[in-house]
Amino acid sequence: xxxxxxxxxxxxxxxxxGAGAIGSNxxxxxxxxxxxxxxVDDLSSGQIWNVPxxxxxxxxxxxxxxxxxxxxxxxxxxxxVFHLAxxxxxxxxxxxxxxxxxxxxxxxxxxxxxxxxxxxxxxVYASSGCAIYGGDMPLPLKEDFIxxxxxxxYQITKMLGELYCNFFYHxxxxxxxxxxxxxxxGPGEVPGQYRNVIPNFIYWAMKxxxxxxxxxxxxxxxxxxxxxxxxxxxxxxxxxxxxxxxFNLASGREVKIIELANMVNKLTGNDAGVRFVSRRKWDTxxxxxxxxxxxxxxxGYEPKMQFEEGLKITIQxxxxxxxxxxxxxxxxxxxxxxxxxxxxxxx
Length: 347
Ligand SMILES: NC(=O)c1ccc[n+]([C@@H]2O[C@H](COP(=O)([O-])OP(=O)(O)OC[C@H]3O[C@@H](n4cnc5c(N)ncnc54)[C@H](O)[C@@H]3O)[C@@H](O)[C@H]2O)c1
Description:
By secondary structure, this protein is α/β, with parallel strands linked by helices. Helices cover 42% and strands 15% of the residues. It has helices spanning 3-6, 21-32, 67-74, 90-95, 97-117, 129-132, 153-172, 197-206, 226-236, 257-268, 293-299, 307-320, 322-328, 337-346, and strands at 12-16, 36-41, 57-61, 80-83, 122-125, 127-128, 176-181, 184-185, 211-214, 220-221, 224-225, 246-249, 255-256, 274-277. Strands 1, 2, 3, 4, 5, 6, 7 and 12 form an eight-stranded parallel sheet that branches. Strands 8-11 form a two-stranded parallel ribbon. The protein has a two-stranded parallel ribbon with strand order 9-14. Strand 1 (12-16), helix 2 (21-32) and strand 2 (36-41) form a beta-alpha-beta unit. The longest helix has 21 residues, at 97-117. The relative contact order is 0.13. The structure holds nicotinamide-adenine-dinucleotide. Nicotinamide-adenine-dinucleotide is lined by residues 16-17, 19-23, 40-46, 63-65, 84-88, 103, 107, 126, 128, 158, 181, 183-184, 196.
């Protein structure tokens, strides 16, 4: 087994957001590698059935904003922290900006404070490529590109998290690492009003409905298989060369949304096609495609999953867990709460 994986055997590792799409996959992998994993998650968007139920995973239900919960989990003296809990994502933050600031801003600050206080050896912060690079930027997206033009509260607070990490690194010497994820997909992500396009497309397709495309379909995203992200996270927690750094974790390829929709329809046998709806105002990114050169150089990151293969695995996970997924998927009325209030007032 590779050294960076062996490293986790017997380590005490805290995963915030470990019931979520990415965190549950990370938790499973860490447990298999022999780590003692503590998961803290308030289940606001994660699912308890997603957390592996094994002896070396301790699940603590609660919020990273709750100091009693923080004292409880840091009492276990984690050596490595993977901070993945977040108020997810863009549209959710547009609808609930204060909650977004509390969880992604204050929550991250508290995690950093407790990590310094208890001598955590490595703090890995789940940053976001979509948050950092703004709207119109040169492609492929490279880490040194900086913009002030962020279009949602989520983008602002995910950036804020990176800035706080920088402060704790420079001021207290906390060994932070800030991988920037790009559009994760794979088993473990339950569809819903505020979730990513891939689980939602699969969900609608399995219900025999046309897939809603918000735009022209020519938009692109750099979809990254969750297993590749987990591998990048394990590397980020181990390699010394990662400390203090921000780097993209992506697939390094672009896929058009229309191509994705056609693939999902083909693989699920859905003949309802697609329907076009208007672009969301904050969605200013026509193309998203990341350079992964820095992650390769710093931590030897090399994404392995072919896109169509990853989609097939994800669809199989939907088939295997359909009842639970259907019961957990939450879709609101589809309008932002701001708009909803205006509609109510007019009526
Ligand atoms: N999924 C992506 O494409 C993507 C892209 C870039 C960055 N990220 C970042 O990666 C991380 C994980 O994303 P994900 O897709 O797994 O999201 P997710 O919503 O599935 O997981 C986040 C988890 O955090 C939990 N949580 C939320 N608020 C909490 C709180 N106050 N206290 C404790 N737990 C809380 C939720 O219940 C959920 O289980 C997030 O930080 C996200 O910003 C994700």
